[in-house]
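Quick question: who can interpret this fold?

. . .
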Amino acid sequence: MRRGLRLASISGTLLALMALVASCSAAPAAAPTTKPQPTTAPAAPAAPTKAPAAPAAAPTTASQPAPVKPLSPVVKLKVAVVGTVADAGIYIADERGYFKEEGIEIETLPGTSQDMYSPMATGQIDVAGIGPNSGFFNAIARDIPIKIVADKGSLKPGFPLLGFVVRTDLIESGAYKSLADLKGMNIAESNQGVGVNIDLDKVLEKAGLTRKDIKITLIPFPNQNPAYGNKQLDAGIQQEPLLTAGVAAGLYKKVIGLDEVYPNHQVGCILYSPQFAKNTEVANRFMVAYIRGVRDYNDAFDKAKNKDRADIINILAKRTTVKDVAIYDKMGMAGLNPDGYVNAESIAIDAKWFLDNGYIKQQPDLKTIIDNSYVDYAIQRLGKYK
């Protein structure tokens, strides 16, 4: 096998990761040097000692309802996407005509967490996807009534979108033998106030270390591979498809998947704008089409099923920024829940971490932020995933 993907080919993946980082990571201000102490007990539960279990699925329906007639006239929606495999449910539903069957036509627009909240608040964007990070919670605290309505990415076991890597020469020289050897090393961190901060803490906890035992270098995902090549970084969390590219180029080796360290960590969510959420019939129908797309994605990338895999890969190569069809058989994929529900426990854990570390000022009330009613409707129509 040739020495992996050429570094020149990595540039093609940089755009994908820049978009993916924007989707899962707002760019909040750095945490204050001292931790603020909440004056009242937080509304959400304290973080458990174990990683959260996958969310429970909705009850099984006795039989699926008869198909419904499509909306007439057709309803046109604006949907913000970032162009990565985490948008698979939207792209597949569009390409396979599932939105059309519901009487919906979507226009996909490029969007990131940083520029999404205001247009969603004013109804310029109907649907979008972000990570439940500190930027999102701070937007909610500013009375922007955006709702989390479905899953758009988690560290589902077997779907290692994120991996912890160590520079190859450190492994080959014996300087790194186990996670405990991370002590004193220069560790990359992509951003502040985002979910990967918590992933890193989980890795350090597994190593018996804390942040005080390492040096942190703040560097965006797309800039990390060249930094490993220049030996400016020792280790860190890297995201697909750059992870696969970096391993193939010999820059580092993946030592553990984050789906093993923090299984079912919720890293992406579907959001409805306040105006769109009130249009219940259309919002419900959008969710049916989206869940159908997500299920096709799971059918394709579940190794036991492997259904229509080539066709789904072609759709993703056509619609996302990851154009090389060969890389889909090598890279870790995003975990998408085929029953649509977000992992509320994971979101609560993250929110408490952001509060304890000074990125948000109050614990959010998740009961007012997460609305499962649209997924409930989709499951009523489609039944549970099998």
